[in-house]
Amino acid sequence: MENTAIKANASYPARIKETLAYPGWKVVGACSFLAVFAGSIFVYGFPVFFLHIQRDMQLSAASTSLIFALSRGEAGIAGPITGWIVDKFDSRPIIIFGALMVGGGLAILSVVDTYWIFLTVFIGMVAVGNNTSFGQTFLAVTNRWFIKRKAIAMTLIITSYTIGGAVMVPVLSRGIDAFGWRSVLLYAGIFVVVLAIPTSFFIKRSPESVGINIDESPEAPDQPTATSRGRVSDNDFGVKEAMKTVTFWLMLIASSLRISVTSGLLVHAIPIMVWKGLSEQSGADALGVLFFIAIPARLFFGLYNPGIPTRYILCLGMAFGTMGVFTLIFVDARWSVYTFVAGIALLEGATTLNWVLMGQYYGRRNFATIIGIITAAYSIGMLSSPLFLGWIFDHTDSYRTGLIVFLFMYAASAIFFFFSFRPTRPVKLLRPLG
User: What span, in angstroms and rounded, lies between the C-alpha atoms of 359 and 230?
Assistant: First the structure.
């Protein structure tokens, strides 16, 4: 008995060392690095440019919103295609290709004066490049490399975007004040290309692509069965199988409502804060604080396992966001902005588990294709929500009505997440991994 305990204690450091030596962590590190310094510029940094573009090009709030709305809509429309590409091909050329498109697009935008040319380049180059390189690719690669520590790995990458937002939003805002928004776009484009190309060489498509059998790695299930070894897990749904489950549609609706509202709020974040009485710089700093708070929130919700079902945590996160929007609407004091910031930060923290849950429910093989379909579904909301807020503000000089609609959408999302139970896959013969 005593010898067994000693052996177990002696083997624990060895198991930790083996886990940390797993090559998947290098992939996570490279993806996280690019998420911080490249992906976050587009995902969270571009709202800083909203009012500057609007003033310089003499646009309405709705016209300016269209630039950002179409870029998010493009991500949804191209989602299934992007997902299929990411599932079928190596990640490195995808990242390099997208980075070159982003860098070239930002350089062109820095000298464009015509609205429609600006819109076309932003959508056709910057948005396509970013959504291809720095979006689904990172999550799909991570999902292929990890089984046991999937939640940890995905949380680290998703949190990296938030770290980038906390760092880059204030930096971009002050850079615009010092050099002008066009110069900052040019420098950002160069920055993305210089970072992305060398870093992409550390991102390998899957453990199988480098000769690692995941069932013989530290990521192997604790109790693998003879039938599961070398085969697709019985948790790996086919695309059609996933779409036949009720849970898929509940998750699709919940994700669509959540992301649509969040997209509109982030595009208009600084104008909303200016509407509530803050200066533009204070609004940018408040947005940075939002991302800063979201960092420990995402790590906590993503890494801490209290034994509570993931769908309940997602529901709780939506409740925090709902309360934050409620306060922003119905409290006139400036402190309501900071309550809103805290609520959205906690929501962003909990919803890290949105894609983790999809990976847990539907498996590794078709993950990018499945979330690509969901991305296509919520593209309508991502396209329309910023336009809706801009149109409301142009006609009422207030964001109040739009935010009330968003309040109910967040509440509905919480309900759909609550009822997203784990789906059951029909029993059939499993095919070997290729």
Answer: 19
Contact indicator for 31, 139 with CB cutoff of 8 Å? no
Using CB atoms within 10 Å of the CB of residue 44, give its burial: 0 to 12 exposed, 13 to 18 middle, 19+ buried.
Answer: buried
CA angle 299, 304, 306 (to 5 degrees): 150
Contact 48, 286 (CB under 8 A): no
CATH architecture assignment, domain 22-206+233-418: Up-down Bundle (1.20)
Produce one character per residue of 207-232: b if its CB has 16 or more CB atoms within 10 Å, e if not: beeeebebbebbbeeeeeeeebeebb
- Estimate the crossing angle of helix 24-34 against helix 181-199, to 10 degrees: 170
Give how far the C-alpha of residue 227 lies from the chain's centroid of Cα atoms, to the nearest Å: 35
Which residue type occupies 250?
A: L
Residue bearing tokens 């480098």: 210
C-beta neighbour count of 105 within 10 angstroms: 23
Which amino acid type is present at position 265?
A: L
Report residue 332 as tokens. Answer: 């006139």
* CA dihedral sign of residues 273, 279, 284, 286: negative
- For the chain, 434 residues long, give each residue's pLDDT as a single digit of tens: 444 444 345 465 666 776 777 888 898 999 999 888 877 777 777 778 888 898 899 888 888 888 877 776 666 566 566 667 777 777 888 889 888 999 999 999 999 989 999 999 988 888 888 877 777 788 788 878 887 887 788 888 888 888 888 888 888 888 998 899 999 999 999 998 999 999 988 888 878 877 877 777 777 766 544 433 334 455 678 888 888 899 999 999 999 999 899 988 988 988 999 999 888 888 888 888 888 888 888 888 877 666 778 889 899 999 999 999 999 999 988 889 999 999 999 998 888 788 778 878 887 677 777 877 887 777 788 888 888 999 999 999 999 999 999 999 999 999 999 998 888 866 554 444 44
Instruction: Show the tokens assigned to 102.
Output: 């982003």
Please count the other Cβ atoms lying within 10 Å of the Cβ belonging to residue 427: 7
Listed in sequence order, the DSSP H helices in 245-309 are: 246-267, 269-275, 280-303
